[in-house]
Amino acid sequence: MSVKIPIGPIHPMLKEPINFTFYVEGETIVDAEPNIGFVHRGIEKLAENKTWFQNLYLLEKVCGICSSSHQGCYAQGAEKVFEAEVPEKALYIRTLMWELERLHSHLLWLGVIMHEIGFDTLFMYTWRDREAVMDLVEMISGRRVGYSINTIGGVRRDIDYQTLSKALDVASFIATRAEVYEKIVLRERTILDRTDGVGILSKADAIRLNTVGPTARASGVKRDIRYNLPYAIYDETPFDIVIDDGCDVLSRIIVRIREMIISSEIIKWIVFNMPKNGPIAAKITHFTKPPENEAASRVEAPRGELFYYLKSNGSLKPERIKIRTPTLANIVSVIHMVKGHYIADIPPIVAGIDPCISCMDRVAIIDVRNEKKQLFNHDQLLRYSIKWYRKNYRWLREERG
Amino acid sequence: MVSIDELKASLGDLAKEIKTDKSGKAWVFVELDKLKKLLSLLRIDGYDHLSTITGYDDGEKIQLMYHLIKFNDKGSNDINVVTFTDRENSVAPSILDLYPSALVYEREVFDLLGVRFEGHKGLKRLLLPEDVPEDFHPLRKDFKINVEG
């Protein structure tokens, strides 16, 4: 299958290209301008040319890390369009996958942010622990990424007792590890120097700029789609929303670490309360035609609110599919966050919203005073920021208290 | 869940039509010239979160859908505001002053559907390269792609 002209939603996630232009005065950033669209693949247009069921596997590939959130969000919207009743057990399995995804996504991000500030030891530890979740996901679905567990009307695979008991082990393991990480992050001077007081986004600004996900919750905004607009089984699930009012990169780390503990608790609750028998999918086949309908679907992906709009025209193919990923929603906040900070703070701030790291590729730094233009790539910027902090950390500590 | 009567009472005759779908979500239809007034009323009412702006070409008109959320501890509401603009002369008022996050969403709709937002300074393409032709708007229905297999 070949498509002539690529168009569609962009997806600025990890390891994908995006370009920022920062305007600086000396070391201080006065303005920033993101330039996105380098990985624009035309998925929205392509989805209009595929059937409802083919789209399940297309839209999963919007993102590699939160593939289940995308597929689940699409399936959830499509169920509203098809007016289908989803069996309860399917919702439990779907939610289990969502929470496992949150665990491995947050662990991945924790490693990335530690790498961004030059703390590669913790990066190695978190990615080792992430393997426990990845193995479990592989046991449940057969694949490490792109699990394809959802279908319209339910899920595609049942889950057995051995796997459920393994899920309990993994949840306990990750919860204990998360507590260790929280201790390390709050005590380690290297981390505090680079993240405490960096990338400030006040609560009022987070609300004004419609920031989503853990980034907003780290600014003290108590907004979580799982709690505010409950979907699947979240209205029965007991859980707390993690908020922190530090408003800086450190709080974003803390919020995500604590969310891992909450997710482990949700996983345990799901395992204990999952219906033992019953169907796992409604009877919708590849040749079921939906009524003319439209639906908006939202889930709380690991990075924040993920939004899908689906419209059907009564045929086998959808009329319009609109995707809004959490990173796009947070781009405006990033521009606001970097203003007034130093060039050396760019890596942790931009990584703080959990976007792509290759964001940093081809960063252009323009000095407003003499209009000198300097191009950095990611590695140079990392080395520059670590060196700069080595030189300047003493007075910075005093300045930031 | 938002009740239709409450919405009708607070919006008055600004809305052309208010309906709910099967899952109980409200869809508010509004004329283009009253859009900004209605959105500012909703903004004051607490609908301060703009999820996104969806543009959709139905063949005759271009639909713009504003998906809003009002966050509340005791029960949040989400509603969808729908308005229509011409296909030939696609213009809509910019809502940047009400919702700063519309910066990227308006650029996206402009890029893919060719709706010009009046009052949006520096409205330019978001996703497609800047050197594509000016009337190149791929999400319009008359734009066909070749799909084999």
Q: Any overview of this molecule?
A:
The complex is a heterodimer of chains A (401) and B (149). Chain A contains 14 helices and nine strands. In chain A, the strands form three sheets. Chain A has a four-stranded mixed β-sheet with strand order 2-1-8-9. Chain A is α+β, with helices and mostly antiparallel strands and 401 residues long. The longest helix of chain A has 29 residues. Chain A has two domains: 94 residues, no CATH class; 266 residues, Orthogonal Bundle (Cytochrome-c3 Hydrogenase, chain B), CATH 1.10.645.10. Chain B is an alpha/beta fold. Chain B has a domain of 85 residues: Beta Polymerase, domain 2 (2-Layer Sandwich). Chain B has a five-stranded mixed β-sheet with strand order 1-2-5-4-3. A two-stranded parallel sheet of chain B has the order 6-7. In chain B, a hairpin with a 6-residue loop joins strand 4 and strand 5. The radius of gyration of chain B is 16 Å and the shape is globular. Classes of the chains: A alpha+beta (401), B alpha/beta (149).
